[in-house]
Amino acid sequence: MSSKSRLISSTRRFSTAAPCRDQKPVLNRHSRIITQPKDQGASQAMLYATDGIHSDEDFNKAMVGVASVWYEGNPCNKHLLGLGQEIKVSLQKSDLIGYQFGTVGVSDGISMGTKGMSYSLQSRDLIADQVETAAGGHHLDGMVVVPGCDKNMPGVTIALGRLNRPGLMVYGGTIRAGSCEGAPQLDIVSAFQAYGKYLQDGKTPKAENERYSTIRHACPGPGACGGMYTANTMASAIEALGMTLPGSSSFPAESKEKHDECASVGPVMYNLLAKNILPRQIMTRSAFENAMVLTMILGGSTNAVLHLIAMAHSVGIKLDIDDFQSVSDRTPFLADIKPSGKYVMEDVYKLGGIPKILAFLLKNKLIDGNNMTVTGKTLGENLEEWTHKYGELDSRQDVIRPLDNPIKSTGHIRCAAFLVSVTKFLFYFGSIFVGGSVM
Questions:
Q1: What is the residue-averaged pLDDT of the chain?
Q2: Cα distance between residue 139 and residue 315, in whole Å
Q3: Domain segments of the chain: what residues?
Q4: 183, 153 in Cβ contact below 8 A?
Q5: Which residues are registered as beta bridge partners of 372?
């Protein structure tokens, strides 16, 4: 008997074959390795005991992992288990099987200034390894990744790039701005600065009350740190890459839109599986150029440099600091957002979100709109739909400055190749530095 005959005879009677024109597309390209052959009975026995399998026919469905970087001890991540559950429901409504699993994370905000920070960057690679391991080991057909804090975003995206199976990212969302008497808009940096202010004011009882009030109200609920720090920078960059649904990076954690986004994942994932749209078809060289441009426009974290380089490496694209310098040299810095400015990501949401900014950049030919995205449409098509629904970026707002009145005419990031280092200019320090420095 030929090997092909043995394979056919060993498969279940409800095995999915190549579809005819009137049949549904094959979605279970990977999971069928364990769900179809009779000689994989042990695999099937264990799957029968899971909540995803209710009948024999369920073995013909695609199995999609929902990897949430959930843990309770951080506002950026505390709500991700719930978002993952909402995504699972959406997958089930689209006749897909969702299996949620967790991975670890490290909060830079909590570990800052301690030895705990030595675990921060390595958590990115640990997250990537864990997501890839779970998906690869269990032959999952697709992945929805749900990160919330700093290194989470590049970690899960690196995993998607390595796996190269249909997948998308749902960002956990930004935190609301905090407030207290005398400080109408607080964020995590307000808490860092509160101690310096306390010392400056002479450690008086009044200074202590102000310090305590600031740290008590800086973080009012779930969501990532509110300024253009690493989390919001990377979420925005990954949206520009095309690996999220439109608006994902700027929907606050507690917003209705964030829950609506989770509820919309099922049909999107079904389409990705049906058309076999893969991360490496989305995360192209041009898409990374878009991500770099948006990072410069927003005054994003310098961490974007090392993370985007690692993400590009995961899909076989060479990216280095010279590429960032080239983009920085031709891209203005426009966003008046913390830590260098006065606004937070919640304000970006209020003006219409990252898609409005991307549409503004596309209109001014600063990014490429021809790249494929997880919607199955190009970035340009997504942005056209967004502006048709919500309008274009309002020129009267002052969160994003006009091109003819930038904060800085070139990008805020400077790459010192001879030192293999990256520096960031904050506009309120001015554009010229005089004096010595220690490297």
A1: 92
A2: 20
A3: 62-176+221-429, 180-217
A4: no
A5: 378
Q: Which residue has the tokens 């095995």?
A: 15
Closest C-alpha to 47, from 33, 62, 59: 59
Q: What pLDDT does residue 220 have?
A: 96
Is it the case that residue 125 has pLDDT exceeding 50?
yes
Count Cβ atoms below 10 Å from residue 53 Cβ, excluding itself: 18
Pair of tokens at residue 233? 């920078």
- In terms of DSSP H, where are the helices of 77-119? 80-93, 108-111
399-411: buried (b, 16+ CB within 10 Å) or exposed (e) per residue? bbbeeeebbbebb
What is the percent of the chain with per-residue pLDDT over 70, rounded to a whole number?
90
Is the peptide bond preceding residue 339 cis, with omega within 30 degrees of 0?
yes
Task: Provide the pLDDT for residue 23.
Answer: 74
Buried-state track 89-105, b at ≥16 Cβ within 10 A, e below 16? ebbeebebbbbbbbbeb
pLDDT at 25 over 80: yes
Topology at the third CATH level for domain 62-176+221-429: Rossmann fold (3.40.50)
More reliable by pLDDT, 268 or 426? 268
Helix and strand element counts for the chain (H, E): 19, 8
> Which residues is 244 bridged to in the sheet?
169
Residue 211, CA distances (Å) to 187, 206, 219 in order: 13, 9, 14
C-alpha 120/C-alpha 142 separation (Å) is 27
The two three-digit tokens of residue 185, written as one number? 């808009």
Is the torsion defined by CA of 280, 286, 290, 293 positive or negative?
Answer: positive
Dihedral angle computed from the Cα positions of residues 356, 358, 361 and 367, in that order, rounded to the nearest 10 degrees: -160
Identify which of 119, 109, 112, 189 has the alpha carbon closest to the alpha carbon of residue 155.
119
Q: Report the pLDDT averaged over residues 128-133.
A: 98
By C-alpha distance, which of 231, 232, 194, 244 is closest to 347? 232
What are the beta bridge partners of residue 413? Answer: 424
Distance CA 305, CA 291 (A): 10
